Batch of 4 targets.
Target 1
Amino acid sequence: MGDAPAPGHALREDTSEDYTLVKPFDGVWITVKERFSIKIHTTDEGVVVDIFARGHEDEGSIGSAYAFDNETICDCPEHPWNTEQ
C-alpha cells in the first residue's frame, strides 16, 4: 500500500481505510450511505468539503466545511507540512 495509484485514478490507497488525493487531480466525489454525494476539493488556500443530496449535485449543497493550509502549520518535525509555504 502507499504505491502510486493506477493511471487516471485520483486516490492512492495508504491503508485499507485511508487514501490520499494525488496530483493532478484537485477533487474527488464520494457516495456515503447511498444518499449523500460528498465532494472534497482543494483550493489555492486549503480544502473544501461540500455535501449534496445524491442525485441533486447540480443544486445547492446541504452542508459545507473548509480549512486553510495555514491552519495545519505546527512545530511538529515529523510532519512534512510543518512550515509555511
Target 2
Amino acid sequence: MAIEPGFSFSVAEFSAALLAEREILPRARITAGYVAQLVDGAAVLVFAVEDEPEPAWSLKATVGEVAVDQTVIPFDTGTLGEVAANRTVLQFSARELSREDYAHLDVRQTVTSLSYVPIAVEERLLGCIEIVSFGEAVTEATLETIAEMAEYAAIGFASAMGYELERHASLSSVMRLTQLYDIEKVFNSTLEMARLLPVICSKVQDLTRAAAVNLWMVDKDDLLLVQQAGEDRSVHVGDHQGAGDGIAGRVAESGEPVVLQADDPVVLERNARHGSEIASVMAAPLLDGESLVGVLEVVGQEENRIFDEDELFTLTEVAGSAAQALHNSSLLQAERKIEVLQTLVRVSQEITSTLNQERVLQAIVNQPQLVIPYERAAIALEQRQRLTIRAVSGVAQLNDSDPNVARLQTLLRWASGLDQDVYVTQHEDEISDPRPETREKFRRYFEESGSRGLYAVPLADEEGRLGMLSFESSDPDFLNDLHFEIIKVLTSQATLALRNASLYKEVPFIGVLEPLIEKKRRFMAADKRRRGLILGASAAALLFLILVPIPMRIAGDAQVAASQTQYVRANADGVVQQVLVREGDQVSPGTILAEMEDWGERSTLAGAQAKYKIAIAEMNRALVNNDATLAGRRQLEANYLSGESDRALEQLSRRTLRSDITGTVVTPHLENVVGKKLEAGDAVMEVVNTGEVTVDLAIAERDVVLLKTGAPANIKLEGFPTQIFHGTVGIISPASGVAADHRVFFARVRLANPDGKIKTGMQGYGKIYAGLHPAGYVLFRDVALWVWSKAWNWFGW
C-alpha cells in the first residue's frame, strides 16, 4: 500500500496538532486521522493501555469502516496480546490468523492484513495503532513513517495521561471535601445520641468503603464499644478495652491516629485471638478540645482494600466533626436531665398539693408519665387487710370487673407478699427472674396483657404498709437508672401524700343545716299572700337565672412576659467596620445593623467573577472557531467558576449583620464596638421585639375548662390605669403552676405593641370572654362548685 498522493507527513504539523489538545482522547483522534491519511481504504484504531486496576486495552479513536465490540479488551488477548508481549511493529496476514485472534473487531469487509505499531516511551507501553487492511497490506516504508508518528504520539499520550491523572486527583480532593462537608451536615442534623451513634458509623463506613466501623466511647477508665456498623467478629457492642490495650486503647492512650496493615503485630494478635481476617485497620481519636471522648476504628477485611495515609487524614477530619456532634448531643442530654429534675419537682408538688385521696391517687398514676416512659401505672391500697387497685393511669372511672384490672390486682397481691421491689422483663422468650415459678407466672401475665416489663414497688412508712405502685410497658427496657431514682423519690412523696389524705378529718356540717331549718319555720309561719309573693318572686328569679344568657368572663392576674430577643452575632471572624444603629433605635426585619471588614471577600468575589468572564469569553471564542471540545471544557470551567462566584458572594453577604425581627436595639455604647475583632458566634448587640408582647393571665384551675384559644381578652395594666388593651388568647398552658398558694393555669394573651410602650414585667388584671351562659351559671358557679366539692368530700359518693 503506498502513501496517498499529495500527502506528506510533517512532524511540526503533527506535533502542533497534538499540543493543541491536553487530553488523551482528542490526541488519539488526531493520531488516528493522520495515520488514516497515510493508508488507502484501511481502517485505523488507536488504543491506550489502562493501568487500573490491571492493564487492559482501551479504545480511544477509530477511523474507517470498523467497529469494536468492547471498549476495554484484556491485555494479553489475540493480536493485541502479541503487541503487549513483543512491543515492536507487527504485521499479520489474515490467512495466517484465525477469527478469534482479532475477535475484538466487528468488520463487514474481508480483512487481508492487520498491522500494529506500539506507542511506547522507553520501557512503558502506552498504547498501539492498529491498521485493518481490506486491500493491499501496508508497506514497510509506510509502517516506518507511522512508527515515527507513534514516537511523537507516545510523548503526547504520556503527558495527557499525566494531566488526566493530576485532574483526577484534583477532582478526588474536591469530592473528598464535598463528602466531608456533607458528613458534617449529616452529623449536625440530629442531637439525639441514640440516632447520632449509628449515623456516625454508617456514614464513615460509606466514606471509607470499609467492612466495619467501631465507635468506642470513654467509660470511666476504659473504652466501651457503643456502636458498630458492618461485621467485625473480633469485637462486639458492649466490649471494653483498657488504655493501651488493642488498637483503640493505644490510640486513646497516645491521642494520635494510626493506620496498620495485616502484618502488624497488634493486627496479627487480634486476628489470631478472634479468628478474624482483618487486612487493614485505621483508628482516630475523638477529641473535645483536649479531652478524649472516644475512638473511631475502621476495619478493612479485603486484601485489595488497604488503607493509606490519605484515608487516615480523611478519617481524622471526620473524627473531628463526629466529636463536635457528640459534644452537642451531650449538651442536649445534660439539658434534658435538668428538665427532668424540674418536671420531677412539679410532679411532687402536684401529688402533695391536695388532701383529697382520689386526686392524690390520680396524680400518682398519671403525673409521673412526664418523666417516666411507662404505658400503664396502677396503685393498690390496703383495705381491710386486702390489697385493692384504686387507680389506673388514663382511666377516670375504675371498673373492678375489667379482666385487665383483675389480672393486675392478683399479680400485685402476690408481689406485696414479697415485701420488696419486683422488676421482671421479657426479651423474646427469656424472662429475667431466676425462679421457674415466677417466670411461668409472668409469662402468662405478659401473654395476656401485652406488656413486656413490670416494676412494682411497695408503699410503706414507719406506721406500716399502705399499698403497691406498679409501672408497665411493652418495651422491656423502658426503665433506666435515672428512672429508678425518680421512682424512689415519687414513692416517698406518694406515701406521704396518701398518709396525710387518710388522716384528713371531715368537718361536721350540722351548723349549716340549723339556719336553713329556722328559715323554713319562719316561712311557714307567714300569711298565705306573703308566701305567694315570695314564691312568685323566687320563681321569676329562678327563670331569669336559668333562661337569660349573659356574657361570662374569666378574670385573673396579668403579667407581661419577657419579649422575644435576638442576639445579633458575627457570622465569621473579622473586625467590625461600622455600626449603623444606636441604643434605642427601632429596627425591622432586614435592617442593616453593622458591617464587618470585607475587603478579602470582595477581592475573592472580584477574582472569581473575572475568571468566570474569561472562561465565558474563551468558550465563545472556541464556539466561533468550531472547536466543540475546547468549548465544552471552557463551559465546565465557567460552571465551576460560577459556583465559586456564588460562594464568594454568599461569604461577602455574611459580613453584613441584619435584624431578623421588628424591635428596639438595647445594647449601650455600640460605637465602642467599631474596630473590635470578633470571632464567629460572638454577640455584637441585642434587639428586643417590641412589635408584639405576650401577657400571662393566671386562671384558676376550676375555670380553665371554659377557655378557648382565639377568645377575646381585655388587659388593664397598672402602668396605664386609664387604658384597656385588647388581645386574643394564643395558648393555654397544658401544665399548671402555683401562684399565691393556689394552682393556676396560664393563658398567653397576645397584644399589639406598635409604639413599644408595654414593657416586660408590667402587672395588671385581665378578663377573657368565655361566651354566653345562663345568668345563674355565671353568678353562682363558684358557690355551686365549692358546695359540690365539700359535699363530695364529706359523703364521697
Target 3
Amino acid sequence: MKQKTPIIIILILSLLVGLLTLTHYGESWDDLSLQKYGNKSLEAYHMWAQQGVVKITDEDLGNYGPSYVMVVTLGTRLLSAVTPLSLPDLRHLFYFITYLAGVWAFYALGTRWLTPNAALGATLLFMTQPILWGHAFINPKDTPFLAFFLLSVFFGFNMTDSIKPLLFDSLTPTAKKTLTLLTALWLFSVFPLFIFTDAFHAALANLVHAAQLGQTNIISLIASDIRTAAPEIYIQKYFILFLRVRAIYFFLFTSVLLYIHRKIHPSSFILYPSVLLPALLLGFTTSLRILGPFAGLIVAYYAFRIAGKKSLPTLTAYAVIAIVTMYLTWPYLWTNPSGHFWGSLKAMSEYPWTGAVLYNGVEYASTALPYSYLPVLFGIQLTEPVWALAIAGVVASVIGLRAKREFIELTILWFVIPYVGFIILHSALYDNFRQVIFILPPVFWMAGVMFEKIKNTKWQMALVALCLIPGIAGIIRLHPYEYIYYNSFVGGVNGAAERFELDYWGISYREAAEVVNGIAPANSVIWVEGPAHLFELYARDDLKIYSTHEADRAERYDYVVATTRYNLDRASYPDAKIIYEIKRGDAILTVIKQP
C-alpha cells in the first residue's frame, strides 16, 4: 500500500484539477454524431427484443464500436438529474476519469519492468504530455481507447500470471470423452446460431414468401392465414421467436456445460474467476474500437511466453468470453455478426476521410500522406525530453538485454511493429496522430529506464522534475487548448501555425460563444462557419444562429464566427472587421468579425 500511495495521491490531485477546469473545455467536432450513435445503439436493445430489427447502418457510424459511448450516454443521463453540470461537461468528466483509469493501468504495468520510482516518473511524464492531457477532456474515442487498451493489457497480464495447468490425469476416459463432446457441441451449435443470423432471416423470408405463393412448407403448415396476412408480419413474428429461443438455448446450454465441468472436473473452474474481468474488458475494448483485439494479441504473446501450451485453456476461455461481450455490446453486429465485423475492420482500415490533412504547410489526402508524417508529428508533439530519454532507454535496455528482454519484446510488439506498419501501409490518418496514441505507452516506459539508471533518489527525482517542466508549462500556457501543443523543435504553436493542424476539433467555439454572449445585443444574428453546433451549445437562447448547413439565410449578420481550420476565417466575409481573436501565442484558432 505504501508503494501505491504516491500514484493514488497524484490521481486524486489530478481529478481535483480536472473538476476545477472541466467547464473550460468546448465540445469536439465529432461528439454530436457519436451521441446520436450512442442513443441509437441503446434503443437497439429494445427494438431487437420487440421487433427483431436494428436500425443502424454504416451512415449511423455502425462500423464504430458503441460500448463506450453507450456507457457515457447512460452515465450522463443519470448524473444530469443530480448535478448542475451541463451534458457536454458531464461527458468530459467521464472522458477524464477514463483517462485517469488508463494512467493508473500505465503505472501498474510500468512496475513490472521498472522500479516504483522510475515507473512513477514515467507515469508523470506520460500523463503530463499536453496533447494527452487536452485530449483527456475532449476526446470521446481515442483517449478512452488508450485507457481501455492499457486496462485490458494490465488485467490480461494478471490473468496469465495466475495460469495453472489443468490436470486431466485423474479423470476417467468416459469423463474426458463427455467433457470433450459437450464442449465441442456447445461451440458448434451456439456460435453458428449467432454467426448466421442474417442467413436465417433470409431463409425465413424465402419460406414465408414461398408459402404465400401456395408452396407447402413448415410456414404454410403452421400459419393458417399466410395468404391473407402481409408477409412482413410473419417474418418478424418468427424471427423474434427464433431470437428468443436462441437466447434461452444459449443461456441454458452454457449453464449446463459449466455445471457439468464443475461437477466432473472441479479444477477447471479455477479458470473463470481470473479470466472473467480481463475477457470482459477485452470484449468491451473491441466494441469501443476495432483494433481492440491487438490488446488480446499482446496478452496471448505474454501467456505463451511464460506458460506455453499450458495457457491454451485459459486463452480459449478468454477469447470466447471476449467475443460474447463484444457481440452483446455492439448492436450493429447482431443482424450479421461475421459480415459486419469484417466489414467494419475493412472500413476502418481504409477509412475514406474526405477532408484535407495539413502537414508542413501542404494539404494531403488522409491516405496519401508522406512517409515522414508520423515520425515528424511524434517528434514535434511530444515534449522535448521524451525521445531523448526513450532512445537512451532502448540503448540501456539492449545493453542489459537479459534483464530487460521481455520489456524489449513488448516494445517491439506494442510500438515498433504497428508504428512501422502505419507508415509503410499508408494508413488513413488525420487530425494529426490521435488515432494511434494507443501505441505510445512503451515509449514512456523506455524513458523510465533512464530514471531507473540513477540510483540516488534525490537526483532521480530532480531529473523527473526537470523533464516534467516542458509538459506542465505547455498545459498551463495553452489551457484549455492543450491538444494543439507543439514543442520547441518546430517553434511551438507559433511555428506550427499555418503549417500543421491546430484546433482541428473546434474546441475554441465555446470561448467564442461566451465572448459573443457578452457583447451581442438581444436577438443578434450570428453566422457561424464550420461546426456551428459547437457554438450553439453555449450560445444565448435569444441569438439567431445560421451556418453553412442552414437552408434559409438571413439578409445580414451582426457577427461572424469562423475557425482558422481550412482557412475558413479568411474565406468567410474577408472584408469584415475582426473584433476578437481566440489564440495562443501568435497562433489564431477562431476569429469573431463584424460585417
Target 4
Amino acid sequence: MKKLLVVATLLIFSTHLLFAQKDLGELSGNISSYFQYLRTDSTIGATQPPEKALINSFANINYRIRGFKAGVRVESYLPRIQGYPDRFDGTGLGYRYVGYSNDFVDVTLGNFYDQFGSGMLFRAWESNTLGYDNMMDGIRLAVHPYKGITIKGVYGNQRFAFQNGKVIKSDGITRGVDLDVNFKTIFPKLEKSKFSLSMGGSFVSKFQKADDPVLNLPQNVGAYGGRMRFGYSGFFIDGEYVIKENDPSSDNKYIYNKGKGVLLNMGYSMKGLGILFSAKSVDNMSFRSDRTKDLQDLYINYLPSLTKTHTYNLVATLYPYTTQPLGEVSFQGDVIYTIPKGSKLGGKYGTNIAVNFSTAYQPVHHTSGINQNDSSRVTYRAVPFDKSNLKFWQDFNIEITRKFNKTFKAKLCYYNIQLNNNIVEVSSTAHGIINSHIVVADLLFRINDKHSIRTELQGLFTKQDRGGWTTFVIEYTISPGWYISVMDQYNYGNPIKSDRTNYLYGSVGYIRGSSRISVSYGRQRAGLFCVGGICRYVPASNGLTISFTQSF
C-alpha cells in the first residue's frame, strides 16, 4: 500500500509538472514543533527525563492540481513531550494520501479523516495537543448524484500507535456508509425561503476475529442510526438516534447489551438574543475497532460533550469533565443576551450577558425480569433519558462583558462546578462531589493603538479536595507581533501548609504573518488536559518550553 501511494504521488507530480507548466497546482501545509527542556522539582513532583530534552514535530504538506490531490505528514517524537501516550516515538511518515475530486465524486486512497452526523457512530479525527489520532487507512468515497445529496463510504483500519517511526494499525476493520439529504438545496423554491430541512442516516460496522476460548464473541458488530434537522427563520431543532448491536468488550465487561444513543438540540436566535438547549442520553456506546483496548484507544465513534469549553486557567484545568461512553444522561442550556447600546444598563457600546448550565447523571439500569445467570449475557434494560440521582457533573456559569470606552473593556465571570471525583478522578484525596466556586475578572487596557495590557484575577473556593486557589495573569501586547505574559497559580487553601505551592510561569512570543514562535519557562501543575470531553493526563513539570508554527 505504501509503495503504491508513493508511486501514485510521484506520477501526479511529474505528469503535471511536465505537461501543465502554466498551472503547477497549489501547495499548502504547515510545520509545527514543540520543545521541552525539563528539570527536577521535588516540590511539585516534577522529574527530569533521562534525555533532559523532549520534542514533538509535525509537517503537513498538501498538493492539489485540477482535481488531483496528494499529501503527507511527517511526524517526529525524539522523544515525545510529557503527557503523550507511550506509543509515540521515532520519526517517519504518519499520514499519506492520494485522491481525486470533482463536482460528482471525491475519492481518497490512504489516510483520511471524516465524520458521520454528530459522530456518535463514526468520527475519525486527530488532535496533536491531546496526542489523539484515530485516522483511517484505506479508502473513502463520496459521491454527489444530485445537488443536495451526498453518499459517503469508508473502509479501512484505524491508527493505533506510531512506533519507531511507523504507523501501527488496529487489527479490526472499520467500514461504513452515510447518506445526507438537504431538501433546501434540492428544491430551488426553498433556497430563498426561511424554511430548511435535512435528513441523514448511517451504518457502521467493525470486524475483529473472535479468539476467546470461553466467550462466544461476535466477529462483526453493526451500528446504525438516523438524524434530522428542521429550521425556520431563527429557530432550529435537530436530533439523532443510534443503536449499536451487542458488542462485548473490556469496557462493558463482555456483556451482550445493545448500545443506544440520543442527541437533541434546539435553539432560537434573533438580534441581541440567542437560546440553545441540548440533551443527550447514551448507554453502552463505547465502540472500538479492538474490543480489548481502553482509555482513548481505537474509538470508532465520538460522543459530543454537552459542556461549555472553558478557557480560564482555574475553570479549565482543575475540575474538567470527560464524557462517559458506558452511560450518561446530560443536558445543557445557553442564553446569550446583548443589552442594547445607548441604554442605561447597556452603556455606550452595549453589554453582553452569557448564561450557561450543564449537568450529567448516571442512567438507570433496570434489572427486573432479567436473569443474571442467563447465557445471553444481557444484564439490564435501559430507557433513554431515564436518569438516576447519581450526579456526575454540574456547571452553572454567567459571564458579563462590557466595553466602557475606547481604552477599557472588562469581563466578569462566576462559575459553580460540581464534579464527582468517584467517576472522574482528578484528586487522590477527595471523595464524592467536589463543589467549587470560581470568580474571574478579565480586564483589558489599551494604552494606544499598539500597546495594551490585559490582566486576569481568578479565585477558586472549595471546602473539598485541596482547598482554594488563585491565579493571576498579566499580559502585555505590542501590536502587531510581540507579547509577554506572566501567570502565577497558587494553592493558598491547601490544608497541608507545605503544599501551598506557587506555579509561576512566564512566556514571550512573536507573531509575523503565518509564523509564530513562543518561549516559556516555569512550573506547570499535574492534571488532566481536556478538549471536547477527551482528556489526557499531563504530569507536573518545571522547565523551558519553545514552540514554533509556520503555515504556507
